Amino acid sequence: MTIKLGLLNNVQVRFLCPADVDEVKRLCREWFPIEYPDVWYEEITSSSRFFSLAATLNHDIIGLLVAEVKTKSLCNKEDTGILSFAFGDDSQVAYILSIGVVKQYRRHGIDILKRESGVSLMSQVSSQLAKKDLKGRYPLGISSGIFGTFEDDFQRMECQNRIRTLLLDSLLSHLTTPERQNCKAVYLHVLTTNFAAMKFYDKRHFKQFRYLPLYYAINGIHKDGFSYVLYINGGEPPWTLGYPL
């Protein structure tokens, strides 16, 4: 599908496929401080267990999102309390493993200063995904980069956030269809020092749920994290929101 964003022209969204393994591996190693095993890249580009999207321009991947839908009972211990006790263990939640966006827009030929009017982003995404046979496919923090002159910084950040929004809205559009009403929350983890990611999720109505001390191991050093949650399809938080179990 081709989506026209306000600052981006001819950006396409498609599902990842096995042929993307090498490119996805290279991008993730550039974007994220965590080293993923090779089997992880193979799974996210081929397994129906994951909802894996790529935003592309001129056939190059400029952003990606990987998520997994699972039952509440399969959540890790630190995430088991994100839903109210009113929802049974068979209730589903979606875990965003990663969202990443390239930082060097100019090499992809994007005119970041051109603005267009058009149909809303959400309506385009919903319309296009509705035509896609997902065949049971269910759906990683945020990467950001700043380059070039200072006066272009705002435009570049806006471009990056529009791509992230496109990918996230594609996931949410899928999860809020009548067939997915049993999915009650979307959640993710983020480093406590990743202020760009936290600002993005705050603006998208995610709520900080829990502080996760020493959650990440990066280059042999443990780092703290937060979990963030967005409730959908009538999902609700526990009474003791944010209280560590």
TrEMBL record:
Its EC number is 2.3.1.259, 2.3.1.48. Signal peptide: none annotated. It is an enzyme of class 2 (transferase). It catalyses: N-terminal L-methionyl-[transmembrane protein] + acetyl-CoA = N-terminal N(alpha)-acetyl-L-methionyl-[transmembrane protein] + CoA + H(+); L-lysyl-[protein] + acetyl-CoA = N(6)-acetyl-L-lysyl-[protein] + CoA + H(+). One of its GO terms (molecular function) is histone acetyltransferase activity. GO terms for cellular component: Golgi membrane. InterPro entries: Acyl_CoA_acyltransferase, GNAT_dom, NAA60-like. Residues 11-233 form the N-acetyltransferase domain. One of its GO terms (biological process) is chromosome segregation. It comes from the Eukaryota. Keywords: Acyltransferase, Chromatin regulator, Chromosome partition, Transferase. Belongs to the acetyltransferase family. NAA60 subfamily. This is N-alpha-acetyltransferase 60.
